[in-house]
Amino acid sequence: MCIDTLTHSQDYSAALLYLQKAFEIQKKNLSSDQSSLLSTLYHLSLVLQKLSRYVEAIEHAKQAISIGRHIPELDEFELDEIQDHLANLRDSLEDESMRE
Q: Would you say the C-alpha torsion 25, 29, 32, 35 has a positive or negative sign?
């Protein structure tokens, strides 16, 4: 099943499991395509955000940015998008903390 299908159907728990498995496989294959790893981390962050798991989402976004800085062919727009996402996550976490 495609990750887009899972997120479109709002089955975020299933999407999270799918992405976590993909991430584990990619970590085992250290020679794995770094662009794919970045994409998986970014999508993990997006799904975790939908599940209101902001701390975990922030960590995955930071890892994606770190990898992205080492991919010369990465479009700067893509890296900016992930950095904007990270800023939004931090805002969401702060908002959640203020509500408690």
A: positive
Burial 37-47 (b: 16+ CB within 10 A, else e): bbbbbbbbbbb
Report the C-alpha gap between 68 and 54 in whole angstroms. 21
> What is the rounded CA–CA span in Å between residue 29 and residue 61?
20
Which residues, at least 6 apart from 54, have a Cβ–Cβ distance to it below 8 Å?
48, 89, 92, 93, 96
Q: Residue 27 — very low, low, confident or very high, per pLDDT cuts 50/70/90?
A: confident
Question: What is the pLDDT averaged over residues 18-38?
Answer: 86
Element (H, E) at 79: helix 76-99
**If pLDDT is split at 50, 70 and 90, which confidence band does 90 have?**
very high
